[in-house]
Amino acid sequence: MIYPDQAAKLRSGVRFDRIVAGVIGVIAVVAAVLGVVHTDRSLASTHAQLTASRLAADISARIAISSLAGNLTFNSDEAVLFLEMEGNDRALAAGLAGNAGAAAVGGAMYDASKQLKAQVAATGATVAGSPLDGYAVNLIETTPEEFEAELAEQSRQVDLANDAGWHDRIAIMGLSFLALAGVLAGLAAVLREGRAGWIVVRVAAGIAVLTTLLVILAIV
Amino acid sequence: MPRKRSEPATELATAGGPEGPPLLEHQPASEAGQRGVALLLAAAAVAAAVVGARVSFVSGDASGHWQSTVRLEVKRSTGAQENVRYLYETEVPVAIQILRSRLVLQKLEAIPAAQGGTSDVVAIEKSVQTEILRALEPSLDLTKPAYSLSGGGVDLGKRLADLRAAEPDILAVDPNAAQAAGNRLSNKAVLMSLALVPFGVCGMLGALAQAFASRRRVLLRSGAVTLAAGLLLALAVELAL
């Protein structure tokens, strides 16, 4: 015969075991989900960081080459201008001095400057022509709009990296809490259905529930 | 009637008679049932550990590929910058000087005698331009006929292409290929990590099977099915990607 108080005690033990099993089950599932979230977010963060680094290197190259192209145009135009000025001034000075030969030299230089201008322009137009590879052509012919767009994309990747990194840290924090909940659940199983055991299993259950909320934070 | 050792524990019986004390649910269950729970939990743990380790390796490979894209991008862009810098800052200024001297010499030679074409000043200037060309032309490939434009000027695109072709290893650098490989491995790692969820569910079912003896058989079978599903998913991802 089972006395009522013994029966109640036995039922309480059954309930305790089921609660501990439920807490362990929740921990197992939530840990698995957080594992998936951590894998996804950490890879996303790494990808975004390295894409941002790659874009930064590309942007630096475009800035450097754009500067070189600008200097080329400036220096070329400068050479044409100097030849024109020299020819003009020589012709003028020689004319005033009555030196036909020197005036002829000045005139020749002035005429040469006109042709040099055309040749420099033709030279500049070939800078990104075939058979140059597509990457070099793209670098040389970057427009200000393309440059701005790449800059914006680089900034976006940095933001993506920070965002994914934050979600990853939430997932790791959740896994840490679940480890604690797992230890407490194990402790509760050892302590059994006494007062201490019930306190510990309730704490473990509370941590498991809170961590489930962290899963939502890590995903959203 | 005494319960067989292999049978699961039964629900709370009414007050017993000559058969003995009533059986209670939370009494230690049969050895076979407990063995089943232990095996299931152990299998889930081992599967999760193996798949988790594999996911970790694949993730590491993906990160490695992505990191190499940065290295390759720096190598490629540095190579291009150096080629352009050499051409624009070293060869082009000298080329423009050569074009200048050629044009001036051409114009000087076209001056008629009546306009001072035979004068000493013109002769001296011709000599100067000739000496400049003699000094500069041999040292520069850019102004050779291979790069000359029909209307005058030089083909910078062709010269730059030849400079880049002289370093085929840098020309062949392709960070996009490494990026694509990294992306593929990343997708593989994430998909494979999804197998951890069925393993977690299997662990939950195993834990519940320990506590709910009357439903142990169903819970163990469900656990085995989810474990198998997780293993199939991991294997499919490993083979397909």
Shape of chain B: rod-shaped
End-to-end separation of chain B in angstroms reads 58 Å
Query: How many helical elements of chain A?
Result: 5
The Cα radius of gyration of chain B reads 42 Å
Task: Give the class of chain B from helix and strand content and strand pairing.
Answer: mainly alpha
- Helical proportion of chain A, percent range: over 70%
Structural class per helix/strand content of chain A? Answer: mainly alpha
Strand tally of chain B is 0
- The overall average pLDDT of chain A, rounded, is 92
**Estimated share of beta-strand residues of chain A:** under 5%
* Helical residue percent band of chain B: over 70%
Stretches of chain B where pLDDT is under 50 for at least 5 consecutive residues are: 1-26
Number of helices of chain B: 7
Largest sheet of chain B: none
DSSP summary, beta strand count of chain A: 0
Characterize the overall form of chain A. Answer: rod-shaped
Number of domains of chain B: 1
Uncertain residue segments of chain A: none
Oligomer: heterodimer
Could you explain how this protein is built, in words?
- The complex is a heterodimer of chains A (220) and B (241).
- Chain A has 220 residues and is mainly α.
- Chain A has one domain.
- Chain A contains five helices and no strands.
- Chain A has helices at 4-97, 100-125, 134-140, 144-191, 195-219.
- Chain B has 241 residues and is an all-alpha fold.
- Chain B has one domain (32-240).
- Chain B has seven helices and no strands.
- Chain B has helices at 31-109, 120-136, 156-165, 168-171, 175-193, 196-211, 216-240.
- The longest helix of chain B has 79 residues, at 31-109.
- The chains are: A mainly alpha (220), B mainly alpha (241).
- At the A-B interface, helix 1, helix 2 and helix 3 of A face helix 1, helix 2, helix 3, helix 5 and helix 6 of B.
